[in-house]
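User
Please review the sequence:
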Amino acid sequence: MSDTSEKEQPRRRQARGERRIAQLLQAAARVFCTTGYTAASTNAIAREAGVSPGTLYQFFPNKEALAVELGDRLMHQMQETYGEVLTPVDPATSLEEAIGAAVDRFITFNTEHPVFFALMHGPDVPGRIAEAHDQLHATVIGRIEGLLGSLLPEAGPADVTRTAHVCLGIYKAGLELVLAHEGAERAAYVQEIKDVLIRYLQPLVGDRLGSA
C-alpha cells in the first residue's frame, strides 16, 4: 500500500464519522421535536437514524450527549444570527423596517431549527444546555441594550435594560405561537409580534427613526 493510500484512509474514516454524527444529530432533532427531550430515548433516535443502538453508542454514550452536541451547534448558529441582526440602526430606517428585519431573521432561524426551542425551553433539559442558554440570553440582552441605547440616548441604564427584557420577552412569548402554526396563520402571528413590538417601542423612540 502506498503512503498516499495510507494517509487517505484516516481521512475517509473521519469523513464517514462526521457524516454519521450529522445523521444521528438530525435524527435526534426530529425525535426531540416530536416527543420532547424527556420522553426521547436513544433507541428511538437510532431507529429514526436507521442505525443500530450499538452504532449510536459508538459516537454518543446517551441522549444527553446528543442533546448537548446539538445544542452547542445551534447556539453557535444562533450567536451568528443575532450578531448579524442586532447591529446599529441607520437613522433613516423606519422603526417598522428595523423591527421587521430583526424579527424575520430570528423567526427564520427558529422555524428552520424547531429543536432549538424544544431544547431551550423544555422542562428537563441537560444542565450544560441550560447554562449555555442562560449565557446566550444574557448576551442577547446585552446586544439589545446596545441597540436600544442608540435609540434612547436619554434613558438611564436601568430603563434600557428593562426595555430590552420586555422586547425579548414579547418575542419569546410569540415564538411559541408561531411554531404551533403553519402557512398564512404562522405569518399572521409573526406580524402580530412585529406590531406589538412597534407599538411598545414607538412612544419610547419617538421620531428618532425615519417614518415608514
About this structure: The two ends are 69 Å apart (CA to CA). The mean pLDDT is 85.
